[in-house]
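Hi P.,

Sorry for the delay on this. The queue was packed all week, but I finally got your sequence through. Input first:
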Amino acid sequence: MGTFVYSSSCLSWKNNLSRQVISSHQVVPHGVTEKGCSRIKAAACSKEDVHVNQDCEKFAGSWNRRSTLVSGVSLISSVLLGFPGEGYAVVKQGLLAGRVPGLSEPDEEGWRTYRRPDDKSGGHGVGWSPIIPYAFSVPDNWEEVPVSIADLGGTEIDLRFANPKEGRISVVVAPVKRFSDEIGEEATIEQIGPPDKVISAFGPEVIGESVEGKVLRAEVAEHSGRKYYQFELEPPHVMITATAAGNRLYLFNVTGNGLQWKKYYKDLRKIAESFRVV
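Then the structure:
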């Protein structure tokens, strides 16, 4: 990856240099040649020589013909690696999965509300409808954590949040057709099953093992006509809020180690119970 970035920078410099060689009428930004000399001293320039050597003349025409390609490579490297620059500025942020801001400003208690942006990418399969947005609240010091395509949680992990001192959050958004062909496009959590069936079926996907004997609390809440199943498991320490909307099942998971659970339990429970599909 580091080699790719270096190559992109070199191509951009060569392209600028070729423009300077080919036309004396074209304006070259001040400092381009000087910057090139400082980075690749042995390749093109001497200490104070204002002439371009023979090697530069050979590649100047070639890179001029490829100026469009070089610009494209620079743009791609800026976007994929998250480097700031002109290319990054013109790319619509909604296309960058897991990297679109959605946090509100802190309220008077210092809590922020995260709402999944409408234009955030993600869909878990061709043909699926856009994900219905969801929201939850976190203390001011919690931040979004990028989700990798190699994430051990699988492709259905839509979002991660964390605070190293307090705990972690993950949001699983899974198509209900994976569980039942009888559920339509407007699923409800009741259609998927009662609380005991839901936690037995999907709890292992969250904690990686059977939930038998681990469910300390199971409750049903209703907000704006939508039912939410809320569970607390131990061990490991985790709270799961489950609901359904559209053609997807949502599993909102809040977890922490023993010390975090003891010290921040009140806040972690508040986070878990704040989850809503909007």
